């Protein structure tokens, strides 16, 4: 995990994601250690975090260590990316994706200068 991406837990999800998304969009990567596609997406998320530093917060939630939040959101497969904006879920993407697809996924939710 890079210095721009932080880990969240079931206990911190409300504060770190829902409340934080009221000031800037928050992209949550639901993942697990054993998930190959999750490992493929991780460096792409690091790149997105660097490119959108200050405009987009990216966090990771390990589904094995934190089962309550994924269950409450209806997550059935990983990697699942959920983008929260203004305290609510704004978009979801399931499965590994190319960097261009990830950039297109977050672009409509970023503030334009």
From TrEMBL:
Q: List the disulfide bonds.
A: 35-38
Record GO terms (molecular function):
protein-disulfide reductase activity
Any one annotated GO CC term: cytosol
* GO biological process terms, semicolon-separated: cell redox homeostasis
Q: Where is this site: Deprotonates C-terminal active site Cys?
A: 29
Any Pfam family from its record, for instance, is Thioredoxin
Question: Domain Thioredoxin spans what residues?
Answer: 1-111
Q: According to UniProt, where does the site described as Contributes to redox potential value lie?
A: 36-37
Q: What does the record give as the active site?
A: 35, 38
Keyword list (alphabetical) reads:
Disulfide bond, Electron transport, Redox-active center, Transport
Family, similarity comment: Belongs to the thioredoxin family.
Name of protein: Thioredoxin
């Amino acid at each position: 995990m890079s210095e721009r991406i932080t880990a969240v837990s079931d206990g911190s999800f409300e504060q770190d994601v829902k409340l934080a998304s009221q000031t800037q969009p928050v992209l949550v990567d639901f993942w697990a250690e054993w998930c190959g596609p999750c490992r493929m997406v991780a460096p792409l998320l690091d790149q997105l975090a660097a490119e959108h530093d200050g405009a987009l917060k990216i966090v990771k939630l390990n589904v094995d260590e934190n089962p309550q939040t994924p269950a409450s959101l209806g997550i059935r497969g990983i990697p699942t990316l959920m983008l929260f904006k203004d305290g609510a879920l704004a978009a979801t993407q399931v499965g590994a994706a190319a960097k261009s697809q990830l950039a297109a996924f977050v672009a409509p939710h970023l503030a334009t200068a």
